[in-house]
Amino acid sequence: MVERVGIVTKLRLTTIAPHVAEVVAWLEARGVEPILESDTARLTPSLDRLRTASRDELPRLVDLLLVLGGDGTLLSMATRVSQSGRDLPILGVNFGHLGFLAEINFPELFPLLESALIGSAAIERRLILGARVLRGSACVAEYRALNDVVITRGSLSRVIELAVSVDGVFVARFTGDGLIISSPTGSTAYNLSAGGPILHPAVDGLVLTPIAPHTLSNRPVVVPGSARVLVTASTLDNDQEVILTLDGQIGLALEPGDMVETQQHEPPVRLIKAPTNSYFDVLRQKLKWVER
Predict the structure, then answer these.
(1) What tens digit of pLDDT does each residue of 98-153 get?
(2) Distance between CA atoms of 95 and 67, rounded to whole angstroms?
(3) Four-CA torsion 272, 276, 280, 285, nearest 10 degrees
(4) CATH homologous superfamily for 128-266?
């Protein structure tokens, strides 16, 4: 049973306050406790009686997470849910522009939220990536990413060279601007912009997509979802930057000789889906594909 629902909104989206108040009233009328994320609570001072928690704390306190914002907000909370170790369902409502993940609009929320409270909502499991930065024999950083793990050159750097292996088998050295390691969910993000393929979320695979490769025969490669991908980056000059980014939100400057290990992390992220929207409905709408 869902007894507590966490509510997170897009940062500084002040126009969302009346919608949050409406959701709170709806939940309380059904005996469900709403817990507001701290920044969300500051947007809604009229609800200062409610319990609050930070974005990192919230997944440990609730039975369901409601995200009002856009894909960026949902991505940031999905990684936090994964890091918490909770198998927590997430319902995203789109207040942004593109909305591949937060695919429903506010008027569609309450029927779907009703089904989520009684346990009849459709759940889609999405592969999530775990990434580790290895420096010598030590792991110096560890992350989760729902969309992608990206290794790129710094803004003022020249090309970088990436040595890539999959499950201990050497693949190639890619020279160019970088490499995207994408989940099926992230295949419609940076991967798509860089010329990579769209993967259906049910596909158990990862996409390795070179960014602006200097050899035109370097093409995207799809590998098994269980694969362990190891990337070692080097530059032509030691003072050049190589940057690791996760879901376009977290960044880390790599040192010479650092290795980035990426593989599927368990458990997957659970997204509550609208039963009326198929994945292809979302693609047609967001990518402006012609309907017949």
Answers:
(1) 678 887 889 999 999 999 999 999 999 999 999 999 998 899 999 999 999 999 99
(2) 10
(3) -100
(4) Probable inorganic polyphosphate/atp-NAD kinase; domain 2 (2.60.200.30)
Which CATH code, of 2.30.29.30, 3.40.50.300, 3.40.50.10330, 3.40.50.12160, is assigned to 4-120?
3.40.50.10330
Q: CA-to-CA distance for 94 and 74, rounded, in angstroms?
A: 10
Catalytic residue among 39, 48, 71, 87: 71
| 86 DSSP 8-state letter | -
Query: Is 281 designated active site?
Result: no
Residue in the structure block whose two tokens are 């996409």: 207
Say how far apart CA 36 and CA 168 lie, in whole Å.
45
pTM, rounded to two decimals: 0.93
CA distances to 13, 106, 125, 128, 180 from 20, rounded to whole Å, are 11, 11, 26, 28, 36
